[in-house]
Amino acid sequence: xxxxxxxxxxxxxxxxxxxxxxxxxxxxxxxxxxxxxxxxxxxxxxxxxxxxxxxxxxxxxxxxxxxxxxxxxxxxxxxxxxxxxxxxxxxxxxxxxxxxxxxxxxxxxxxxxxxxxxxxxxxxxxxxxxxxxxxx
Amino acid sequence: xxxxxxxxxxxxxxxxxxxxxxxxxxxxxxxxxxxxxxxxxxxxxxxxxxxxxxxxxxxxxxxxxxxxxxxxxx
Lengths: 136, 74
Prior knowledge:
Chain A is mainly α. Chain A is built from five helices and no strands. Chain B has a two-stranded antiparallel sheet. The chains are: A mainly alpha, B mainly alpha.
């Protein structure tokens, strides 16, 4: 298994852990600032870059760089689509002239969810391209 | 009508065996890529850059057109 695949599995695990922890907090504590704190788990995605024993870091040759670039673009494309979808939905549901008032933590959480989507889609795309894609 | 066959084929697998059964790992190290990339090249699933093509050809001591072949499929 290549370093990039190890990285992708690790990141996917962190993303699933974060989503799971968020769900658990939501169930036991409700939707508030405490729930937002679980996004700190995303910091675990930095482990591969700092652990030389188990993850040597992502060593790239030209094919792996191509895969990484495609995965990165897929992640941001997914967020962009979600972003457009969210704003269109809000517009249609609330009305295009409506005024929204949202708490700051809600806004922060939206950005953190966007980062979860970027990482999740990037990791899944990386695994797909390694396993069965045109670059496999 | 254009064919769906890949336009670039290669002789990497044959050349490895002609060079003392060179392993994919050895070739990868000589070309500066991972073994997975050599596997993808041999399977015809990845087409290398010009730079990598020259590196692989140099590893075999052969001209590029002996390792890689372009087929006009149109």
